[in-house]
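Re: the request from the purification team.
They wanted to know what the chain is likely to look like in 3D before they choose a buffer screen. I agreed to run a prediction and write the result into the notebook, where they can find it.
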Amino acid sequence: MTTETTTPLSRSVGGRLLYVFILGDVLGAGVYALVGEMAGKVGGAVWLPLLVALGLSLLTAGSYAELVTKYPAAGGAAVFAERAFKVPVVSFLVGFCMLAAGVTSAAGLSLAFAGDYFGSFVDLPVIPVALTFLLLVAALNARGIQESLRANVAMTAIELSGLVLIVVLAIMVFTRGEAEPGRALELTEGTAPAVAVLSASLIAYYSFVGFETSANLAEEVKDVRRVYPRALFGALTTAGIVYVAVGVAAVAVTTPEQLAGSTGPLLEVVRVADVVPEEVFAVVALVAVANGALLTMIMASRLTYGMARQGLLPAGLARVLPGRRTPWVAIIATTVVAMALVFTGDLGALAETVVLLLLFVFLSTNIAVLVLRRDTVDEGHFRVATVVPVLGAASCVLLLTQQAQQTWLRAGALVLVGVVLYLVTRLVGRRAGARTGEDGD
């Protein structure tokens, strides 16, 4: 069997641009907002759950590397599930979990935007600001947002510069004799270390997700079988190094309690260092969070539109705005859901829900690697050791067992909505088919 490699798309993305694309997807909003959440669970050893989350992410990344290079024209986890399991409802659920995770992530990022970073400029209630933010994102989305790789390079540079700045400021505080790096080895008292680290790793995992979207770029990458694994593992490793450095820097400069009590935890480091105006760093953080939310909602609305065109969701969601050519009904629907989710929990709770939904996607991908080993292709491709997807699947199951009941309820409600929409769409399709048959008689 041969793999079809021809594509109407332009294969113009080289290894370096792919690396930056993946790094830009991984870096940014998560760590800007969630260092405090991790500190509240694990204490000063924030770097430890980040390191654990990196290791777990690399396992599933190995599965993506094999499937993307084996089927370079395929488009992500839902397509891999369709190839492996050949059960339409499973493929739908994998795709819908991706969609639900994106909408939930945008809701969480809206709360991060409306928190202490925004509060550096004006003091307003969080919920109204978060809802207004989502409306503005929807307006920009409907107007027609076209992100290029060059724009992503610039945005990644801004996000990365803010994180590097935190490390530099911590070094400056250390040279003044005011830092306490020993805090990085302290764990929360009264909690079993393993439980604390695993609990914090659930949140840390959120900071690494995003790499899976690179599978959709496979048809546009030059020499994808050679460069994709290098770019994927390189970007994740780079993000891990930066995150660990930021985690150590943050607790060395300020206490875990201060970080945990702030929705803009890295802003606490800037205040203690007292070198850079906090408003400057707040702008960088807001750009990172806003960009993350915008890209996430673009993805969610386009995924909704695509699933509607495929007959997996109601056809009305595929309506396009004349002139702008943007999926306005899908944009409205995903925005309304995101706004509703704002009322269901704080940033940490929503981040855990995103992780839970993506764990099902990653579990499917890890299993798909093993199932598709029976499907051989003529072209050479990256092949991960069998133990990697096995451990990847096991890690997904482990993290699923650590989720709180409220997180399961929130994710379950979202998936239930998807199932209802799927059944309604199929029922309407069958009735339409029956009428067509009657008309033909």
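For the purification team: The CA atoms of residues 144 and 324 lie 6 Å apart.
Please add any questions underneath this entry.
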